Amino acid sequence: MSVADARFFEAPARAEAAGAVAAAFGDVFGETPEGVWSAPGRVNLVGEHVDYTGGLCLPLALPHRTFVALSPRHDDVVRVRSAQEAGADWEGSLSEVGPGAPDGWAAYVAGVAWAMGTAHGFDAVVDGHVPLGSGLSSSAALECAVAIALADLDDLPTDDAGRAELAAACVQAENVVAGAATGGMDQAASLRCRPGGGILLDTRDDTVEHLPLDLAAAGLALLVVDTRAAHSHSGGEYGARRADVERAARLLGVPTLREVDPDDLDDALERLAAAAGPGDDVAVLRRRVRHAVTEIDRVRRTADLLRAGRAREVAPLLDASHESLRHDYEVSCRELDLAVDAARSAGALAARMTGGGFGGSAIALVEAGAVGAVAQEVARAFADARLRAPQFLSALPSAGAGRDA
Ligand code: ADP
Ligand code: MG
Fold first, then answer.
1. What is the average per-residue pLDDT within 77-94?
2. Which of 55, 64, 117, 150 lies 20 to 30 Å (CA to CA) from residue 168?
3. For residue 105, how far is its CA from the centre of ligand 1 (angstroms)?
4. pTM for this model (two decimals)
């Protein structure tokens, strides 16, 4: 294999991509859009599968963004087109939007207007540069681009508190209209991140602390491996994990697993076994609890290191996160494990799956000069295993949702 076999999915320059979607809007609707807005996809550095049990997570915005050119209308009609969904334009009235309707991709657009209580229709053209269905949250990028556009046009607050409200509306749109289960991490990251850092999101109260992540200064880079293994079967497993942690929390008598002190984990696991009923698989519940409690603790430790400017030292925490997701939470898969193992043997300081799992993407913390070599080794491992070629993205901590033009 050659270096060229490690294919990078590059983010286009923002101004160029914004110009292209505005031009596409002109082609479709015959006029200039009122404006262009965009929102990023995200990767989670650490803190996986804990956003639905009151946990902490630490995502950052990717340079890869979804753009929307949009004009408000005087009636309640919505007309939308996406460059990524050719032949699936949607037109309808806001009064038709609600739980489960519309179906298809337009749910992520019309659903946001529904959740925000937007009083007017709009025309919109979407063009996304976040890979779809790769666990990098193209769904949140789309929702958040629409949300920031509507907020801007309707003079809603877009400071951090306003963005927290927009994120909640986007979660509503995804849960209720698109019918996809999701916690709050993706939308918070897409709306609330700032360039040069990640956010420590406390999902108990949606508060955010901005943390510096100056990888370049540490001589590091964050490489994303999109395994291109579809995570489409993850829905049922996601629901099952949520049910496990909710059951475990009930047995332990706590509202969420956040309330379990990591220093008290062994005791908690004993108490769990004692409280379990005949229908409970105690061994499974113990593993789920151990993942959630240790993962939340790893986020705390990672945040401490980042606050102290010691980014390089987070490596063992990222590795441990993967082992926990793989063995205790059981949400990894062959492709993710291969990406992680290959990246580590190619010299990555650390690697872990990121996002919901069962496919999607992994991240590797690598020396800045080794990005190409690590990507090439991962691509080679996939070829040797006769798997579909992965693609790679550079995760430079980027800006949250905003106006482009
Ligand atoms: P992920 O968020 O990890 O990329 P999801 O399955 O949550 O994967 O979301 C992918 C879905 O979001 C797509 O199938 C599509 O319905 C919608 N979507 C995302 N980006 C776009 C886009 N640019 N244009 C149209 N639909 C999109
Ligand atoms: Mg998604």
1. 98
2. 64
3. 7
4. 0.96
